[in-house]
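Throughout our pipeline, every protein is held as a single compact record rather than as scattered files. Nothing more is needed to write down the fold, since each code stands for a local backbone conformation. The record that follows is passed on verbatim for readers who wish to inspect the format.
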Amino acid sequence: MQHLRTIAAAGTLLVMVSAAACGSTPTPAAPTAPPAPVPTVEITPASEEAIDFEKALENFDPQNFDRPTIIDNEWFPLRPGTQYTYEGFTEEAGERVPHRVVFTVTDLTKVIAGVRTVVAWDQDQSAGELVEAELAFFAQDNEGNVWHLGQYPEVYENGKFIEAPAWIAGFEGAQPGITIKARPQLGAPSYSQGWGPAVNWTDRARVAQVGQEVCVPYGCYQDVLVTEEFSQEEPNAFQLKYYARGVGNIRVGWKGADTTQETLELVSFTHLSPEALAEVRAEALKLEQRAYEISKDVYAHTPPAEYPEGVAASPPPGEPAPALAATAAPAQPQAAQPPGPRPEVVVYASDVAESALFELEVWDDPASPEGTMIGLPNNGDELDPPPENDPHATFTIQVQPGVPYRCWIHMKVGTPKGRSQANVLWVQFSDAVDQAGQEVLKPGSGSYLTARGPQQEGWAWVGCDQERPALSAPLITFRSSGPITVRVQAGMEGVGFDQVVLSAAQFLEQPPATAIVPKPR
């Protein structure tokens, strides 16, 4: 169950909220005693559901997100720059422990499962000590439902890092879920809030009450919506969340066998200044850099978070520059490119973690490097190009800025069947730019290179030469140094590959002449 890892409540300025105060002037001061008891909620279950948690997931369609980062759901608005502070208590070893959560909607975005998401950053304190920091990712579909596409939390104890149980849609069987619906209905069945089986994220929610009047330290609200959240691991423990129109989550309570008995109330609402937002952005990027280093099977295979348009990748005053450049994966600062031979980039299929494969398979092939290739069975279908989230592999490589690379893929053309010639792969790269310095080929976008192999079955070196939209040349240049994300997506069923080469010198004009390209030393 979500124990404040995604308290997520942001929105328009409170002065614009029509469900305004019904009591005394609110104060942001921290309570010096336990908050008033959360009203007892006698919940009549939406239905006596027999839930198959693994199968009762939401139908996620990346094509149903035309403006995913404009999150204006009346119950859960997420406006960049808003910051909410919650205070309350949890039960630990029979003692009531002060608990504080600061949740901020950043102005960063990140593409996950083919959808651009809003990046939220929060900090969770217990008895004044930071116990968790987290990045969470949200997007709104065309109907107004707010989706949760994953999160990267870091858990600490006594100031030391303990674990980072990340789940991101598209990796390790994880799938997106709905945080809150556009039109919540009392009596409707529960809905999945995401599925991350590798870390036991199985949360579901349903509407428990409507039309409530609730007061918290920041103010009083009418027509409040109450939901109850529960999980496969704790089916009899319920976290209650109270939502005010135009504001978001104003209170958290509990019901049933919830051992933490967590209670939180909104005590402060702030819209950050540009300087304060820049500081938050820098902290979120630092956390993302650690995510790339720590979560090697999941987060390391995602495209990097991106700055808002028109914002330079510069730190706030007095702070060191964040290690993450705009639209680039975390990178260590490097000196100017030295003279001499330019490095070739060679990736074998055996280098790609199985967790980085989406609906692709690892096959044995004695002709491949280390006997390993990647492919998918041929059922006779063509597949859709990006941004469609069809079978793909993601991995990171090290590149140099300003160096033109040529992309080659050692493709295995399969046996034709039905509509599939088994000879097409699409390729995308994070941080790639055209001659005008504009971003192109970004994973999750509609810009990509096409590697179209011959119709004859068997192995062939194929250039990534056909562009959409058309570029001036098939050469690829990157904005900055450091690791970038490569996404190779199947264009037809039955196709496979065992090597990807980015050449800055040796194969700029002609493909490799040997079946296996040795890795540079």
The chain has two domains: 1-13+65-308, 345-503.
